[in-house]
# Entry
Amino acid sequence: MAILEVRDLIVSVEGNRILNGVSFALEKGRVHALMGPNGSGKSTLAFALAGHPDYTVEGGQILLESEDITRLPAYERARRGLFLGFQYPPEVEGVKLREFLRLAAANCHAPFCEFQKLYLESLTYFRMEELGERELNVGFSGGEKKRSELLQMRVLRPKVALLDEPDSGVDVDALRLIAAGIEEAARLGSAVLLITHYPRILEHLPLSRIFVLDEGKIVKEGGPELAWEIERRGYEAVRG
Amino acid sequence: MKRTKAGLTAELIEEISREKGEPKWMLEQRLRSLEAFRRLPMPRFGPDLSEVDFDEIFYYLRTVEPVTSWDELPEEIKRTFEELGLPEAERKALAGLGAQVDSEVVYRSILEEVRAQGVIFTPMEEAVRDYPELVREHFMRVIPPEDNKFAALHGAVWSGGTFVWVPEGVEVAIPLQAYFRMQTQGVGQFEHTLIVAEPGSSVHYIEGCSAPRYSKVALHSGMVEIVAKEGAHVRFTTIQNWSRNVYNLNNKRAVAYAGATVDWVSGSLGSKVTMLYPSTVLAGKGARTENLSFSFARDGQWLDLGAKAIHLAPDTSSRLISRSVVKGKAKNVFRGKLFVAPEARGAKGHVECSTLLLSPEAETETIPTLDVRNHDVEVGHEATVGRISREQLFYLMSRGLEEAEAMSLIVNGFVSPILKEIPFEYAIELKRLLEMSFTEAIG
# Structure
């Protein structure tokens, strides 16, 4: 059963229409991939689903567990279990990763003692022990920022995780950790939407469905084999 | 309730002095100050002070008779102090506490073991009476009345405040605190704080301030003088949360002798207008000062702040750090001044001010002055002005934080280099104040 359903979503940014009626559904405990050429609207879709105020929904609906969240502010969506892993997470000086995540977890109804345990365990899981007391993303390398996003997902245990290119610019070891984190999230029941350019990460994952976005529309949908087809033949050929 | 007439005259000064049973030298000092006040011009820089009418202010008001236990205070005052958490702080975290209402100190306590170390912690009036030589040697010597108009005003009408004397080699392990409350409409508060730290001693003094809000303009013009003798360490922390009708125009200055350290930590949240420039004269070889300031100016406020380090001796060092947050139609100014004399070879000075603007109408100005008179120095200055980015805000909100919560987290992070220098209980209180101000504004 679909946990997140997107129906005919039309989104514009500063008056320019980026998404022209996007529809798809994500299922609990499954990993889905969103692929598509540069500028096709993948990040726009992620921001719009998470409720970024600069992304205006002009039509369509977003349903989380059959509830319409299209007009809810970002924090309400988060509290209902939606998570966005940022492609470029901003640095926030003076705010400790731990402190921030504790607040986030409290807002997402995670009890404090559970948070402490999960936080420490997740630092180890993503080999981030030395970053545990650092300021949020401040001075983190590209790969560390990606792991920090995954760590946040692991602690918040979302129902739906939208991950915007968690695999770009990371080395092989980090890629394995990230893939393991995604696999675990799905195993524990999250519906994951993975935005990526590379089939490499998909190899490590039990993938259920691939959506191809182009010019603001889903132009193709298919099983895991679609990723390799794209890799071999390019988007042009795939969209037919 | 003892109250003088409004307005500033020699008769008033004599009445205050008589009321306090002062020695002749103090009365003379007051009259000399009054004369300087009449002669000196208003400050030629900074905020508009035309609303301050020296003839409208009540210069002396004894609202409450001094007591020796909280329970003896009038109900309203007692409740106020309880809400401010003073009795609790006294029990848990302080070596001594003084509380002043309007013109007079109404409550004072000191831990027995601190008293046994020979530390003096007493209302200023009692010090004038009981330790005349010690007081006379230092009183308004660090800041003479002729220094500026408000120093002169203060010298003429000062009332209340604290005298602290720490004997040679004595370290006061936990802080002493004073709390200043302006309770009555139209009253001015002019407390005098004098801290003398003998060689090798150390002390941390904290002051907090508040007042209920009245429609009428109120004036607070306190003075703090610190003498840190050879190798002494004095830390002075102020958390100011005056109501928005208060003009808070202070003089604070320290002299640090050889090897001494003076640290100023100032948090400015309240008042309508503040002018505050804690200064340290680094008078002896190797003296050091650190001046940490944070401020939060909101609608209608003009917080004119600064820090000064006057390097007069070799190998002296100073760090002047400020973090300012401005929200709504408000203004923040930071004047960072370093003076390095020709004799001060090997001096090091660093001025750093950062401002975070939370609204388009918020104004900020940074005015560094580096006056360096020799070449064997290391001085530097940095200033930044920034805004909260939409990306940061959305990032935090996408993790379940409401806008107010996200803003206050970012602001707290921005001021954290200063907050972490403030004793824990006060840092918590400040965080709470910051958070409250965001929920008020948005919710």
